[in-house]
Automatic annotation (TrEMBL):
Its EC number is 2.5.1.141. Pfam families: UbiA. The gene is ctaB. This is Protoheme IX farnesyltransferase. It is a multi-pass membrane protein. The lineage of its organism: Bacteria, Pseudomonadati, Pseudomonadota, Alphaproteobacteria, Sphingomonadales. It is found in: Cell membrane. One of its GO terms (molecular function) is protoheme IX farnesyltransferase activity.
Amino acid sequence: MTNPAALPADWRDILALTKPRVMYLVVFTAIAGMLAAPQFPPLALGFTAILCIALAAGACGALNQWHEVELDAKMRRTANRPLPAGRMDRQSALHFGVGLSFFSVILMGVAANWLAAVLLAASILFYVIIYTVWLKPRTPQNIVIGGAAGAFPPLIGWVAAAGQISTLPVLLFAIIFLWTPPHFWALSLFVRSDYAAAGIPMLPVVAGPQPTRGQIFLYSLPMAAAAIAPWPLGLAGPVYGVSAIILNLVFLVLAARVLANRATEPAQMEPEKHLFGFSVFYLFALFTVLVIDRFLPW
């Protein structure tokens, strides 16, 4: 049955269902992966491939909110989403998410290549089934394993352009995979009461702030190594290499400040908030410099 309270939904609610803030980063990293590839697809095909990745990200957001409507209703930062607020019914969200998923994968296969389409389908299934349904409600390692879902876009962008997988896109995948735990654990430290209220076993809820801070710093180390690696491996030039070193030094300093913090109240977690804010800038800056470096003479 359709919930009568869902009738006021409008285009803003449909857009919110796709988690546009998450989509921006997904689209950006996918474009960076495509531009870093050794050859570029025709403009129309490149645009279509990026559109497919954006639609797939939107589908993941819709299916995530469809599955987690009861959890979202328990958290202050998600309670006003279309489903828990009653502006849209769950069945509509499910149909929207499944329809976008199939459309994006089929269009990617037709417009770009079927390897990119298979990777796109794998990213959707991983995010919805492995992360959202299985890992998130069961283990504090949900972000660690689930980070693979968000790491797919630059790999898919590269494959859409080049038609094959090579070392650099795998490193781009690894960077985002290793960046995800410090990024989300920094956030979860100062909103852990929300996760606790919803019964989600995020690491700060299960293990406490100090073990989480230790894990943030530990994951930052291999992330920095993966981010710098393209330069010594000859996959990127010195502009990228020097920029990557600077960005990762700043990231490690901020992660060390988080490690040194002993606060338990959100109001005292400025180091965590600084790291979370910088982590978003870090990823945008790193991938931007990679693309700029790609077009320089060397």
